Q: What sequence folds into this?
């Protein structure tokens, strides 16, 4: 199996309005990376728009969720010999200009690097409920993992070769962002955060309501506690 350097995995669900421009921007800004779009059962032309812009496309037969999308991307990377994976969302919120910072961390030997909206000086703004939930989960995850984590739910992150192989075989089913940090820590993988820039959504709106946010926080907390006591 030959070894390729880097793969950008874009998770997309019904993103036909922006996936083409997102892929085109990434290929222009980061020509050394291959781009894989994981089309999570979209009912629109997401897959075709991505192909038209030169991305590889892996399509799920129906919507399986973020965890399955990330797992599929990492399995593809593992089977095709990629050394580094940068996972991004397909809605244009993750700025390609921040990718080099994640890549630099991976090249230094970090196995899981998190692009944090809250590390260092940031202009990122969110609702008070989301800020409270993030701080609570960040404190809980930092305590359980023994790593300082400021952005436990960031989907903008990178994986090194050991993490790619591990998470291609064993991947959290429900909340991949915080659960995988704890799993990586328990495996002894090097973990780091780097500041990244987030942009406004190009299309669509968030599906999270205050009730959904509170329910999410409770379920993630329980999942983290269960992962902490699970045998390694």
A:
């Amino acid at each position: 199996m030959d070894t390729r350097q880097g793969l950008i995995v874009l998770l997309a669900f019904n993103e036909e309005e922006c996936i083409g421009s997102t892929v085109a921007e990434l290929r222009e800004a980061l020509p050394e990376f291959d781009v894989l779009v994981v089309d999570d059962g979209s009912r629109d032309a997401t897959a075709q728009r991505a192909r038209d812009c030169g991305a590889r496309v892996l399509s799920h037969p129906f919507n399986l969720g973020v965890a399955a999308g990330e797992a599929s991307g990492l399995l593809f990377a593992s089977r095709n010999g990629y050394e580094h994976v940068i996972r991004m969302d397909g809605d244009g919120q993750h700025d390609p200009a921040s990718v080099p910072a994640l890549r630099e961390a991976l090249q230094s030997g970090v196995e899981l690097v998190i692009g944090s909206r809250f590390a260092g000086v940031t202009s990122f703004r969110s609702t008070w409920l989301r800020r409270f939930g993030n701080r609570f989960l960040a404190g809980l995850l930092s305590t359980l993992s023994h790593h300082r984590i400021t952005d436990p739910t960031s989907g903008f992150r990178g994986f090194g070769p050991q993490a790619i192989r591990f998470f291609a075989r064993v991947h959290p089913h429900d909340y991949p962002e915080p659960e995988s940090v704890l799993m990586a820590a328990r495996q002894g993988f090097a973990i780091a955060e780097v500041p990244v820039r987030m942009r406004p959504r190009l299309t669509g709106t968030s599906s999270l309501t205050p009730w959904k946010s509170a329910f999410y926080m409770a379920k993630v907390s329980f999942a983290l506690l269960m992962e902490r006591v699970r045998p390694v």
